[in-house]
Amino acid sequence: RANILEPEGTVEIKYRKKDLIKTMRRIDPTYKKLVEQLGTPGLSDKDRKDLEGQLKAREQLLLPIYHQVAVQFA
To answer: 31: which of 4, 7, 19, 40 lies 20 to 30 Å off by Cα?
Structure first.
């Protein structure tokens, strides 16, 4: 069909992972709190690694959900 993408294709092209993460950072209070804690000066290496691990786990939990919502809105 002449230059018309399915919703899945539109999301893959226009709303990539980095955009989903920006949206998470803006909307999800838990993700936002973890990012703020990571930006705290004087954080020990152990605490920093722990927070980074929690942030990655939160991303892995939320990415499929945010992707599915993006497809529904496309």
So the answer is: 7
